[in-house]
Write a structure and sequence with these properties.
Layout: H1 16-20, H2 29-40, H3 44-51, H4 55-70, E1 80-84, H5 90-97, E2 101-106, H6 109-120, E3 132-135, E4 148-154, H7 163-173, E5 174-185, H8 191-213, H9 219-228, H10 232-242, E6 246-253, E7 258-264
Parallel strand pairs: 1-2, 1-4, 2-3, 4-5
Antiparallel strand pairs: 5-7, 6-7
Length: about 270
Amino acid sequence: MKPEAAPTAQQTAWTREALVADPHQAPDKARRVQDMFNAIAHAYDLNNRLHSFGLDQIWRRRTVREVMTRLGRSNLRGVRVLDVACGTGDLSEAFAEAGAMVTGVDYTPRMLDLARHKAQHRAWRHGTFAPSFLHGDATDLEQEKRSFDAVTIAFGLRNVGDMRAAMREFRRVLRPGGVLAVLEFDRPSLAPVRWFHRLYTERIMPWTASWIARDRSGAYHYLPRSVDTFVGAEGIAAAAVQAGLHDPRVLRMTMGTCALMTARRASV
């Protein structure tokens, strides 16, 4: 069944007034984020491709390779991956295409509908399996402890209600020796790049993306604000260590606009 079209009326999830403060401190952040993604799900992939100039898929493929390296594997056959905040399933599909057995989890029903629709209509290679997609909360996962070789989350950690609770859950479901991979937007360190990046993400992208999605939820004004007020790659690495993970490594990509943090659960 094809996912239903975008709703004709939308509730504003993020007003200008709400974004003056730190959106990560909003007590109802989880509900706002869910409302926002329900509103923009129908145009999410298109906006990702257009406004990242296709780099979002390159970053995801790099995540797959880094997880493989950190697991010490030459391939991902039989590797169990939990992709949290999977959205429309792009990273889940990238891991499945590499041979992993993937479970995607997301908090937003309409994003999951799209992920399932895409996976069902894709021609999977022999020996690969379509991901399975389930509703779930990153801060309270239903999966059993020590049940996955890798846990991944792409562009979603800053959207969860409690990052530290999510990190504890990621460690809980990782098997000993397993790998956590967090892909997130970040703030470039070079001043000229940072200036252009802010111009693009705060002035240009919110208007063009909102127009494409016919969005009135405030999603594309929230997204750059959520990056600007988030802890950044070093903060993510520190949270992983605090949750009991080890050997965090940060890989910066595309002049620092995106960062991949990987860490491991101890082997014993």
